[in-house]
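Morning, I've got a small favour to ask if you have a moment. I owe you a coffee for this, so here goes:
>
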Amino acid sequence: MDDEKITPEVLYGSSATPTTTPLPIEETPEIPMEASAEPQPNVPPPPPMPKASSSSAVVMILVFLILFIAGILLSSYIRPFFSGRGTPTPTPTQTVATPTPVDPFAGWKTSTIAGLSYKLPPDVLAPACDGTGCISQGTYLPGGTRLTISPKTVTQSLSSLRGAVITDVAGTAFTSHDATVSGQTAIEFTGTFTGRTSGGYGFSQMHGFMIEVTPTATLEINHFTPAGITADWARDDELFNTIISTLTFSATPVPATTSGY
């Protein structure tokens, strides 16, 4: 058989349009994407930092100044402890001076009569004799009452007169009771009535002591408001009691006088 020559056939359709075989379509190979290459979600940018206001700046400056000053003060306080001068100098011991006792009778003057010593304030005059015989001596106290001191003789000692009634010249009795003055036996008497002393003074109130000095001699000391005079009795009576506390007796006996109670 003769070799056949195969000629590609061209098929013609009824429309006489040639029909061709479509070419194969080459696909683009897919490129694998790594995990890190995945698209990130959209993150909004951070908000802008607020600007510091002027008041905040002032506060910061004040805080800085306070801390600075505190540091200086603290440094001045602790610097001596870290200096190279050694241990702090000990505080010297202060010697407390013992106060000198105050003499309550400083400035008072001392008077004496018949072996009796006593003190009077500087504003009280020294007693003067109440007559030519100087049976008694007297002076005035600041409140207006009269202070009288009179040595006397008696026929028996006060120890036997305990409980005796003391009277004025007219015989009016005082209220009296036993007492002790500067270690000496005494009788204290008081009275608020119009009377008269052995020296001739009228009075409306009196307070006094009869003090035994020897078995046959006594010393009377009293103060009284003179009749018709308004005096500060309470003030002078307090001073009278203070004067009584200053009485001291010597060994010299009271000289005899002619006066009695």
About this structure: Confidence is low (pLDDT under 50) at residues 5-17. The domain at 109-249 is CATH 3.40.1000.10 (Protein Transport Mog1p; Chain A).
